[in-house]
């Protein structure tokens, strides 16, 4: 989308707002077609503007506080059963009252229906066996096994849907009904693939949002977005500033930058396909990890605007303190590769629309060749790049890795079982023992320590290597709005930047 088109969209919508202040103009690097939990590749922060969760802000901080819920209390000592109390007086955007029936319906719908990004939290990790209302504002859930982090992880991840609109929906991926939530913003207009207009919910239980109207343009190309910001056609680009633009944007009159220097829970990784030799050999994976120098990648690709670190995110409260990623030992890697004999040529796939990933790929190839491993870069179109995690038609793959994988302790087990870190059925006795320990852990601390053990095992023969954690900068126009704040895992464009209240 060209900047002139953004201006056209904004002008048309401003004219429709007769007598009202101009809307806040934001761009996101997605092409959104709908706004439900079943919309593919939808930013979680966008969903959170319209819908709410039982606790907030997310599973990523470890300190989620009641939001739609007033309390989530364990019953018994086995870590399997919880009683949930709900806020009174909350209403859906269409005026219908919010009750325990909505929460019971949503949890059952996720557990029993079509899978989406969130449903494993009630269908597998954990698996909810009992979901029953107690009265209008309370319910009880039980899990098949211990779920000691339900109140801080599961309840913090699942957006709640209105039963009266969704109970008859058999194919949620095709839902085209009203986009109704309890959140701080109502959907006023959605032009799929072009823009979204939101209007403040003045009856919101969390307080009236600071901004009344927001127009969100969907612009995948970061250069186009930052050009539109510089031209005065946007008020915020929700994507991090490209490293080479940081200096120029910081000097441009009328613009400012928000800095996220506290350590993020987003990263860029290189995945090793453990289904293919030689990546299936843990000794090869260790050698490859030793050959990589992330600090060099940070300097050459991010111009120093990033940090190095292991998987999972060092900034996450669920990550084992002091865990390290193998690396920065190319001489030892070269010796190990030579001892393995003739190794095959490998392909490193990278998305054609990710310039930073492409630069990182070139540095990685150079580092691996210095260690004696023959690797070449293969650019693939974005859709194929996203599909590769499922089809697994790659040797090595560079991609973004999200907070869901880097800072969600329940997703850690999903990753071990279903192909990201390993896959159930592929022999790995040491891992299998740790998986059993994880499932048996019935207290929060025991579950956290079981996760630490899984992380430590992965670090010894990794199947994903973190190339860098970006040190994000977000560019905006302070005259339009100057209350942006970074929430870990959510950037600046999120409900907590737009509310007086905070769940952090």
Q: How many helices? A: 18
Rounded mean pLDDT is 93
Q: In CATH terms, what is the architecture of the largest domain?
A: Roll
Q: What ranges have pLDDT less than 50 throughout 5 or more consecutive residues?
A: 1-5, 7-20
Q: What separation lies between the terminal Cα atoms?
A: 35 Å
What is the CATH topology classification name of the largest domain?
Dipeptide-binding Protein, domain 3
The CATH superfamily of the largest domain is known as Dipeptide-binding Protein, Domain 3
β-strand percent reads 15-25%
- What is the helical fraction, as a range of percent? 25-40%
Over the alpha carbons, how many angstroms does the gyration radius reach?
A: 23 Å
Number of strands: 19
Morphology? globular
What topology emerges from the helices and strands here?
Layout: H1 3-16, E1 24-28, H2 44-50, E2 55-56, E3 65-66, E4 69-75, E5 81-86, H3 100-112, H4 120-123, E6 128-135, E7 138-143, H5 150-157, H6 163-166, E8 185-191, E9 195-200, E10 213-218, H7 222-230, E11 236-237, H8 246-251, E12 256-259, E13 267-272, H9 282-291, H10 294-301, E14 306-307, H11 330-339, E15 346-351, H12 355-370, E16 375-380, H13 382-391, E17 396-401, H14 403-406, H15 409-417, H16 429-440, H17 444-460, E18 464-470, E19 473-476, H18 495-498
Parallel strand pairs: 1-10, 1-11, 15-16, 15-17
Antiparallel strand pairs: 2-3, 4-5, 5-7, 6-7, 8-9, 9-10, 12-19, 13-17, 13-18, 14-18
Helix pairs in contact: 9-11, 10-12, 16-17
């Amino acid at each position: 989308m060209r900047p002139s088109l953004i201006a056209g969209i904004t002008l048309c919508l401003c004219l429709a707002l007769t007598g009202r202040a101009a809307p806040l103009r934001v761009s996101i690097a997605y092409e959104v077609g709908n706004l439900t939990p079943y919309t593919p590749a939808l930013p979680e922060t966008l969903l959170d503007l319209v819908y709410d969760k039982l606790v907030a802000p997310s599973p990523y901080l470890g300190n989620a506080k009641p939001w739609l819920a007033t309390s989530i209390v364990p019953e018994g000592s086995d870590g399997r059963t919880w009683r949930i109390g709900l806020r009174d007086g909350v209403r859906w955007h269409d005026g219908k009252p919010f009750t325990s029936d909505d929460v019971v319906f949503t949890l059952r719908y996720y557990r029993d229906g079509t899978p989406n990004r969130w449903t494993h939290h009630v269908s597998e990790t954990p698996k909810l066996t009992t979901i029953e209302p107690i009265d209008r504002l309370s319910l009880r859930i039980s899990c098949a096994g211990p779920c000691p982090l339900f109140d801080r992880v599961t309840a913090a991840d699942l957006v709640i849907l209105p039963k009266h609109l969704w109970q008859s929906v058999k194919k949620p991926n095709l839902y085209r009904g009203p986009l109704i939530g309890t959140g701080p913003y109502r959907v006023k207009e959605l032009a799929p693939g072009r823009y979204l207009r939101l209007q403040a919910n003045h009856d919101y239980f969390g307080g009236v949002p600071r901004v009344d109207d927001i127009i969100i343009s969907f612009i995948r190309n970061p250069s186009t977005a930052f050009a539109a910001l510089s031209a005065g056609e946007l008020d915020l680009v929700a994507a991090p500033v490209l490293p080479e633009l940081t200096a120029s944007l910081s000097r441009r009159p009328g613009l400012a930058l928000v800095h996220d220097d506290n350590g993020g829970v987003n990263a860029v990784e290189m995945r090793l396909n453990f289904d293919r030799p030689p990546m299936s050999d843990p000794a090869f994976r260790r050698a490859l990890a030793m050959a990589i120098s992330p600090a060099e990648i940070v300097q050459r690709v991010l111009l120093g605007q990033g940090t190095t670190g292991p998987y999972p995110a060092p900034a996450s409260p669920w990550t084992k303190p002091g865990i390290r990623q193998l690396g920065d030992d190319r001489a030892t890697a070269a010796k190990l590769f030579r001892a393995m004999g003739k190794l095959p040529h490998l392909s490193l796939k990278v998305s054609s629309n990710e310039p930073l990933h492409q630069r990182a790929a070139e540095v990685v190839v150079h580092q691996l060749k210095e260690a004696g491993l023959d690797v070449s870069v293969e650019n693939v179109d974005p859709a194929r790049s996203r599909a590769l995690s499922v089809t697994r038609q790659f040797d090595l793959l560079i991609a973004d890795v999200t907070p869901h994988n880097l800072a969600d302790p329940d997703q850690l087990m999903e990753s071990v079982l279903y192909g990201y870190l390993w896959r159930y059925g592929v022999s790995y006795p040491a891992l299998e023992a740790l998986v059993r320990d994880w499932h048996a852990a019935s207290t929060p601390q025991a579950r956290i320590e079981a996760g630490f053990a899984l992380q430590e095992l992965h670090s010894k023969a990794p199947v994903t290597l973190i190339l860098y954690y970006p040190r994000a900068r977000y560019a905006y126009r302070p005259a339009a709005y100057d209350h942006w704040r970074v929430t870990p895992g959510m950037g600046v464009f999120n409900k907590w930047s737009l509310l007086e209240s905070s769940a952090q």
